[in-house]
Amino acid sequence: MTDVRVAGVGLTRFGSHPERTGRDLFGEAALRAFEDADVDRADVEELNYGNFMGALAEHQGHQAPLMAEAAGVRCPATRYESACASAGVAVREAVRTVAAGDADVVLAGGMERMTNLPTDEVTEGLAIAADDLFEVRAGVTFPGAYALMANAYFDAYGGSREDLAHVAAKNHANAVPNEYAQYREEVSVEEAMDAPPVAEPLHLYDACPITDGASALVLVSEEYAADRDLDASVAVTGTGQGTDRMALGDREHLARTPAADDAADAAYADAGIEADAVDVAEVHDCFTIAEVLALESLGLFEPGEGISAAREGVTTAAGDLPVNLSGGLKAKGHPVGATGGSQIAELTRLLRGDHPNSEHVPDAEVGVAHNAGGTVASAVVHVLEVAE
Amino acid sequence: MSDNGAAADASPPTDREYAEWLDALAGGDGFALVCPDGHGSLPPRRVCPECGSAELSREPLREAGTVETYSVVHVPSPRFADDAPYATAVVDFGPTRLTGIVRDGDHGRDATPEVEIGDRVAVGVGERVTDGERLVVFRPVDGE
């Protein structure tokens, strides 16, 4: 086993890119990642690429060879699909490949193009991440599923829409200085409270936007980095994945996400750390309630206590444990198949000290990334540490 | 594809066992598949998704279930364009939970009832307002 280093990260601006194809978005992210890494493209041994709904959005299946072309690499290329955790699983397989010594250099990331579809078709597209027979045909939308979890959470532990509004306000504030973020404007708790309902108790500002974007990471072995004297100070020290029953109604608990518990346990064990070592986190806040559930699955808060973390200032930029300093999916944006790679790119920048929000975590040494698919039937967790 | 509000996918269920399960539900004979350890699931199943047992038997659902969570959906998918707003709920029926829409009358839009966690509801089969496709419908139990 070798240590896995993040040699370089690349992102597109997240937002609306109506006149660009997915291949161009991923090509841009990969170009930036190679520039950041100072690694020769010819050394790339595999491309692990995440994408969820390209067949619907761009009538484009079989995207991996296309993305290898866009990135200028020729190597085995595979598309990974795990709904909103597509890039998370792509990165995880890249980490495992390098850690096992099967490759020294892997390009990993993902892309999603969504804004070219009308909103109702995006809603329909995202719903295919749920169980078609027993959920989608029964009227469950993606926001609706998280709304079901939010009401179950309120019933089990307490909490209110206002607590969730504080999560939205926090993440929007974090996105303001982030040059890659889709929404770089603050949203007040009052504005979030007054927004129209999507699926009660979730309103407009509880939901992430519809986003185009891509992410790319150049992951290398410690030996490769040392041989070439690369500036690759951040290591991926832990990876974990969990799977749960597909339909929310079949879960053990409607207000918890056991797949993420399992992913976190495995990632922490892999890294040899406990949850209390975590200094900074990027979590999958596709809806505000999802951030709460993530914090509890990661062991950063006890069940029932994550709901008040933003309101009490613990997870704000100035708090003891800043969460989603990138702006999160909520404000930075959520190009579904790119998000898992984007989280690791942002965490790497935060730990290296070159993120616009790094000033809030000057001494951070351990970061955790949490990426979820569907209503967390899939979850991937990674631990990143400053290695030198 | 949906500019006139038509469903993006109006095709009927293509899984025979699912269709038969809906038929049973519509006839008041809703059931779950239950393994010897008591894990409930819904068809099609060859093994219990919890423990892998292949010994699955049909057990009737309870006559009334308990609402465990719900949401009133205001922004629907195209298949439910004319149904919104509607109340989705996850309801415990004993060996399994079911997910469906809560209605208080024969049709959707004007009959979305007030729903609370803990409410008692019966289950049957109704039609989507948007396209007439069959779906799981819960109705409040009288006197509750």
TrEMBL record, chain A:
Residues 13-223 form the Thiolase N-terminal domain. The keyword Acyltransferase applies. This is Acetyl-CoA C-acetyltransferase. It comes from the Archaea. Its EC number is 2.3.1.9. GO terms for molecular function: acetyl-CoA C-acetyltransferase activity. The keyword Cell cycle does not apply. Residues 240-385 form the Thiolase C-terminal domain. GO terms for biological process: isoprenoid biosynthetic process. It holds the Pfam family Thiolase_N. InterPro entries: Thiolase, Thiolase-like, Thiolase_C_2, Thiolase_N. Keywords: Acyltransferase, Isoprene biosynthesis, Transferase. Gene3D superfamilies: 3.40.47.10.
UniProtKB/TrEMBL annotation, chain B:
Coiled coil: none annotated. Residues 61-123 form the ChsH2 C-terminal OB-fold domain. InterPro entries: ChsH2_C, NA-bd_OB-fold, Thioester_dehydratase-like. It comes from the Archaea. This is Putative OB-fold protein.
